[in-house]
Write a structure and sequence with these properties.
The protein is α/β, with parallel strands linked by helices. It has 2 domains: 189 residues, Rossmann fold; 151 residues, Rossmann fold, CATH 3.40.50.2000. It is built from 15 helices and 13 strands. The chain has a 7-stranded parallel sheet, with helices on both faces. The protein has a 6-stranded parallel sheet with strand order 10-9-8-11-12-13, with helices on both faces. α12 links the parallel β12 and β13. α1 packs across α15. The radius of gyration is 21 Å and the shape is globular.
Length: 377
């Protein structure tokens, strides 16, 4: 049995501050905790670079620059794949015969390479990428982005058959598992729940639900999350003029400040540190998390459930997660308002917290779930 594995990440996974990189970082940490050596290969962009924290969880760290040349957006191969090609990466992979985990369809340029045909090759599918990009196209109001996202969605759909070269596809939810099993019946597909920091980074002296505010958090440079905030600002927040709302997350655009400028009860917390976010999540009277697309799983949901008080969600946020019973689920605008009122009127009990933790540790325990991956190594 090999005790070393190559992990190819679509991005430098530190800081582990949004969905996909959280899954990568804590999966690598779980591999190390399970006794494996990890050679971590990362494609850096958006200012991310090598970090000491990566060396804390990986034995070797290699950083590659993404090729974001405009011409790559116009080729037959999907841009998210074409921009992550590297001869240097291939040369390093050929130095041994250890198994390879490709994190996301983004990183699979070498998956079907004849030079790697005798290697164990695994793909972590974070979602069905063609569907995700179709959602992005439908969600944006920018004509330029809409054209690009639709084009990328079609390219990803054609390209996806590269997964036929994988030994195992690790799906992140039951919904995605069913899709890959039906589409690639000859390839083994396993459910591998997301890896997270939900049970970690708890700060002493924080009391769950002790604050007087409602919290929405997410990467605020992502249109999916911005659309959720705009929905809350238009349909929900006006029903609570005397309740403080906090919108927290990375890189909020100027447009967001303009939307909430007239709302005296809304505060935007830009780029909070990990400890600041933990405090916000833990002390919020309720975490309000909604989405309009159900691909993959929202890591912020896991985080809020582990650390916070009431977690109020819409249907799509908990689809295929197995977490319905530990959330307060709203099915319409009116229902969302009434559910928030209910949450504000009652504190979570110790019994509710205990039941929530029982469900979370049954389904989302990093140390147990890593065994699903390592049994193939």
């Amino acid at each position: 049995m090999s005790k070393r594995i190559h992990v190819i990440s679509f991005q430098v996974p530190y800081p582990a501050d949004y969905g996909g990189v959280i899954d990568v970082y804590y999966k690598v940490k779980a591999l190390k905790d399970a006794g494996y050596k990890v050679a971590l290969h990362c494609f850096a962009y958006k200012g991310r670079k090598d970090s000491r924290s990566l060396h804390d969880v990986a034995d070797e760290v290699y950083i590659y620059k993404r090729n974001t040349c405009i011409l790559n957006r116009m080729l037959y191969k999907p841009y998210i794949v074409k921009s992550r090609q590297s001869k240097e990466l291939l040369a390093r992979l050929l130095q041994d015969d250890d198994p390879i985990l490709f994190e996301g369809l983004h990183t699979t340029h070498l998956l079907s390479s004849p030079l790697l045909k005798n290697r164990k090759r695994f793909v972590r599918a974070h979602n069905v990428e063609s569907e995700y990009y179709k959602y992005l196209a439908d969600a944006t109001v920018s004509v330029k982005k809409k054209v690009f996202f639709n084009w990328e969605s079609r390219r990803l759909k054609r390209y996806e058959k590269v997964l036929s070269s994988a030994d195992v596809i690790f799906a992140i939810t039951e919904k995605e598992k069913r899709y890959f099993q039906a589409t690639y019946p000859t390839i083994k597909t396993e459910l591998l729940p997301c890896f997270h920091n939900g049970a970690a980074e708890k700060v002493e002296n924080l009391k769950r639900g002790s604050g007087d505010y409602l919290l929405y958090n997410g990467n605020l440079s992502v249109e999916e999350n911005l659309n959720a905030v705009y929905f809350l600002a238009e349909r929900v927040i006006p029903s609570f003029p005397d309740v403080k709302w906090v919108i927290a997350g990375g890189n909020p655009p100027k447009e967001l400040y303009e939307v909430v400028r007239a709302m005296d009860n809304v505060e935007i917390v830009a780029n909070p540190s990990s400890s600041e976010m933990t405090k916000l999540i833990t002390e919020a009277a309720a975490n309000v998390l909604i989405t309009f697309q159900s691909t993959g799983i929202k890591l912020k949901l896991i985080n809020a459930l582990y650390k916070g008080a009431h977690c109020i969600v819409n249907d799509k946020m908990i689809e295929s997660t197995g977490l319905k019973e530990v959330c307060m689920v709203a099915h319409s605008d009116k229902d969302l308002v009434e559910t928030i009122k209910k949450a504000l009127s009652q504190k979570m009990t110790d019994e509710q917290v205990a039941q929530r933790n029982k469900v979370l540790f049954e389904k989302y325990d990093n140390n147990e779930n890593i065994k699903i991956l390592t049994k193939y190594l």
